[in-house]
Amino acid sequence: MIEMTTAAGFTDETFDRFVESRNEPGWLVDHRRSAWDIYKTLPWPSRREEEWTRTDIRLFKLDRFGLPIDGELKQPAGEALLADGVQLGGKSASINSRSIELSLDARWSDQGVLFGSLSQLASEHPELIQEILGRRQLKAGKDRFAALNNACWSNGNVLYVPRGVMLDEPLHLHAMIADGGVDLSHTVIVLEEGAAATVLSESSSENAESDGFHCGSVEMMLAGGANLRYVNLQNWSHNTWHFSHQSAQLGQDASLQWTVGAIGSRLSKVNQQVRLAGPGANCQVNGVLFTEGKQHLSYHTLQHHQAPNCHSDFLYKAALQDRSRTIWRGMIEVDPVAQQTNGYQRNDNLLLSNQARADSIPGLEIDADDVRCTHGATTGKVDEELIFYATCRGFTRLEATRLVVCGFFQQVIDRITIDSVREALTQAIGRRVRDYA
């Protein structure tokens, strides 16, 4: 087991203990306390709000969890899927918001790459980290979860790649939660002009029945001509509450390929935003969602075109079985100056049971007149003719269903340029498919 001390609940007293235990610079402590004051004034989101009308969090009780203070970490939890068979340039692992492993190949540190704890780097490179945090897109006033993460993030990870440095080895991030634990991670990725990197980030729990709470954030900042491949696999236990704000900002001619795999958690509410802030910026977002039991996954995406001649392409596919539910709400927003925008979004859903439900809400807000923006959504059940065709050729119904589900996701899988990610997602989903009849 993993032994560590937590401060029960999220109160002024436990927050003070948490801050005092971290020994951080004064400016960072002031930032935390300011966010904590905002957190205390905000209510929890309710279904009266449009963004939360389809997601009910009344069963979520924050006082069941606590802030990580100290303690002994005896053994790792969870299994890393994305790093299997991959030559890594560095890796970071944590349990319950506390770092247990951190490494970066000297080949990259010698070129000025920074990779490590946000708190540690804030002490070692205060001016740089303060400047980076000053550019944060996620403000504490966004909602109460954003304020909580701003105030209480722990085990924040920073990747900083200087101008012109191109990492040809992936970096791996692994966040784990022990039973009853909390993950308050904050990941910041900064690529300066012409830099390139690949980041594989995943989450897991101690076991399939572990209780847990994740309140995290991810922010990516790409300067002109930078290129980032970012993979995020959410694989929490089915008793974990998952709340996350994720954003990327792209400079001129920057490129981002963002792959999302969501197969875990009891309830997920994720806000994902990409801001194309420089002319010629390009992003592709590929999402794979698979739900079972009574899982509830809600993804809200925004493609915000703020500059001309940019391209965005979002494709989300979800397969649902049992009584699970997914919500995908996508928006393409085009500013008046963002002429010659090319934006696309699509969400396809495959229902594997009569009790599953998928909601798709695509949207457009266009204030420019020279654009090409399209969206689409589909929902349907498995074609029985396909099942019959496969069973006639010796497959069991379960094997046939797995083939159909894998074929349904193939369009997204084919977009993924990293072999280990394609294989990990395909195998993880295949293991979860059951006979839906």
Provide an overview of this structure:
The structure is a single chain. With 437 residues, the protein is α/β, with parallel strands linked by helices. It has a domain at 5-278. The protein is 22% helix and 41% strand. The protein contains nine helices and 22 strands. A ten-stranded mixed beta sheet has the order 4-3-7-10-12-14-16-18-20-22. The longest helix is centred in the last third of the chain and has 19 residues, at 397-415. Mean pLDDT is 92; it is low at 1-5.
SSE layout:
Elements: E1 5-8, H1 12-20, H2 26-41, E2 66-70, E3 90-95, E4 98-104, H3 106-109, E5 114-117, H4 118-124, H5 126-134, H6 144-152, E6 157-161, E7 171-177, E8 181-183, E9 186-191, E10 196-205, E11 211-222, E12 227-235, E13 239-250, E14 255-262, E15 267-276, E16 282-291, E17 296-305, E18 311-320, E19 325-334, E20 341-351, E21 357-366, E22 371-381, H7 384-391, H8 397-415, H9 419-432
Parallel strand pairs: 3-7, 6-9, 7-10, 8-11, 9-11, 10-12, 11-13, 12-14, 13-15, 14-16, 15-17, 16-18, 17-19, 18-20, 19-21, 20-22
Antiparallel strand pairs: 1-2, 3-4, 5-6
Helix pairs in contact: 2-6, 4-5, 7-8, 8-9
